[in-house]
Amino acid sequence: MDKSKKGPKFIKGLPILEYHRLRYAKNKKKITKRKREWYRQNRERTLKRMKAWRDKNNSWYKKKYYREHREHLQKQSRVQYKRDPQKRMAATYRWRGKNLKKWREYDNQWKRKARKVDPNKTRKKEKAYRAKNAKRIRAWFKAYYDKPNSKYKAYLQAWRKRNVERLRTYRFNRENKYRGWDGLRKKLHAGEIVAKWKRVRRLCYICGKYLDELEIHIDHVDPCGTNNLGNLMPTHKGCNSRKSDKRHFKFARPDLLAIA
Ligand SMILES: [Zn+2]
């Protein structure tokens, strides 16, 4: 066949798209057949090109689809979770592993929102999570610390080198908090501190206000002192943390110390 005779014949005055449309309408069957033939012959190449196109445009389509079918998709995901929680969670974790940065961003955003709505609930939840997964968290920190060229390890080591004295004090305090006068580990009985709380007229010696039995926190009067009852006073949680490890603090009721 002579190739120069084929190709578009421009009809005068018609835009090129219009020309193709007309040509297609006229030779629909023939063109479709030829196209099918071409696809059959170039199947691999076509599939490859289609895949490339999909990869390039997929996220946009996915996002669009999600936006349009949001409620339905969320419902479906809930159903899937009920049917097989492990499988669903595995898929979620897989996604998180692949999109770690994105996920952290989402997670932080969500947490910030939740904290604004109800800070106490969030705090409680986080505390419960930490208590439940203490082993896992510790293992995670250890792995993070032991990682080759760990920045965290280097940071901690540098900190330790800079704060040798402070570290010694911490260790000393921690050891001593758990010792009685005899230098042995002494366990405190709840009854002892409650009896003391009654002796000080159910008041907190730091702020001088009434202290409920259920709110009792045990403060070490001398933070470096012992765990002996003489060094312990019932206080509010807030007062205790306000005093922290300070030895000289302005107490509202120093007289209560003398009673106990
Ligand atoms: Zn108080």
Question: What does the model show?
Answer:
With 260 residues, the chain is mostly helical. Among the domains are: 120-150; 165-259, DNA Binding (I), subunit A (Orthogonal Bundle). Helix content is 67%, strand content 3%. Strands 1-2 form a two-stranded antiparallel ribbon. The longest helix is centred in the first third of the chain and has 26 residues, at 43-68. The radius of gyration is 36 Å and the shape is elongated. Zinc ion is lined by residues 204, 206-207, 209, 235-236, 239.
SSE string = HHHHHHHHHHHEEHH
Q: Mean of residue pLDDT?
A: 84
In this entry the ligands are:
zinc ion
Count of DSSP H/I helices? 13
CATH architecture of the domain at 165-259: Orthogonal Bundle
Number of strands: 2
- Classify the helix fraction into a percent range: 55-70%
The major pleated sheet works out as: 2 strands, antiparallel
Write down the overall geometry. Answer: elongated
Q: How much is the radius of gyration in Å? A: 36 Å
Task: Enumerate the spans where pLDDT stays under 50 for 5 or more consecutive residues.
Answer: none
Strand order of the largest sheet: 1-2
CATH class of the domain at 165-259: Mainly Alpha
Q: N-to-C terminal Cα separation, in Å?
A: 114 Å
Strand content: under 5%
CATH topology-level name of the domain at 165-259: DNA Binding (I), subunit A
The class by helix and strand makeup works out as mainly alpha
